[in-house]
Design goal:
By secondary structure, this protein is an alpha/beta fold. 34% of the residues lie in helices and 19% in strands. It is globular. Bound molecules: SN-glycerol-3-phosphate and magnesium ion. Magnesium ion binds next to strand 2.
Length: 237
């Protein structure tokens, strides 16, 4: 099988760090993922009210922190005071520094607010510019990815889509994607073969059941994002 890019990603990528084992999207979560044997972690990045990059999944603070309100309308200084499970909300810079310390690869998932796709991509491109370790930048926001591709063409990109639609090959090719990442619930062997046969790596989210992970790998899925990476790694051992 010919792959379009030289990127190598591991079988198991810790999801939001290791979300079932430590507070999601925190540096403690990265450390936990590394301790569990992960070599890569995925985490979500979005813009604060004052255009700074923070590591948090939701558009609001409510679910994962002691705060409330919209991340994209709150200045960084306020976000840094919030408690995200006994841990602060990391900035992207601090997350990248921690990856370096731990020797982890990073999948930076850009979470774009409507109308700020360009600002987000530009900020991420600037922040990852000097990062030395393995990186993949992905997004469900294809406009953000397209802008990112123009600004940082040498950094591998992952096209996120819940399910594969008929136009996926054109979109992936336009974005110069190395990885396609899909919701595992919508994958089937033909779809996996189509993606792998076209030369892309295929990652599936979110897989916490070892038996399901093994099935996906048998179909040809390259990697799974897991909240409980220890379970999947044990099944592979
Ligand atoms: O990047 C894979 C996965 O994280 C996408 O879904 O909602 O967990 O960010 P979500
Ligand atoms: Mg994510």
């Amino acid at each position: 099988m010919v792959t379009k890019h030289s990127l190598i990603i591991p079988r198991v990528i810790g999801h939001r760090g290791a979300a079932a084992r430590a507070p999601e999207n925190t540096l403690a979560g990265f450390r936990k993922a590394a301790a569990l044997g992960c070599t890569w972690v995925e985490f979500d990045v979005r813009l604060s009210g004052d255009d700074q990059l923070v590591v948090i999944h939701d558009a609001t603070l409510d679910r994962t922190t002691d705060g409330s309100g919209t991340v994209g309308k709150t200045p960084l200084a306020e976000l840094l005071k919030r408690d995200a499970g006994g841990e602060p909300i990391p900035t992207l810079d601090s997350a990248l520094a921690e990856l370096r310390l731990l020797g982890l690869g990073g999948n930076v998932e850009m979470k774009a607010d409507e109308g700020r796709e360009e600002a987000l991509a530009a900020a991420v491109a600037k922040a990852v510019h000097r990062h030395a370790g393995p990186l993949l930048v992905s997004s469900f926001s294809w406009p953000s990815l397209e802008i990112f591709a123009r600004l940082a063409p040498t950094i591998p990109r992952g096209m996120l889509t819940e399910r594969l639609t008929p136009d996926w090959p054109d979109v992936a090719s336009g974005l110069g994607a190395a990885v396609i990442a899909c919701d595992q619930r919508h994958l089937h062997p033909d779809a996996v073969e189509g993606v792998r046969g076209a030369g892309y790596l295929l990652a599936a989210y979110t897989v916490n059941e070892p038996r399901r992970a093994l099935e996906l790998f048998a179909w040809g899925v390259t990697s799974v994002f897991s909240d409980a990476p220890d379970l999947i790694l044990a099944a592979l051992a």
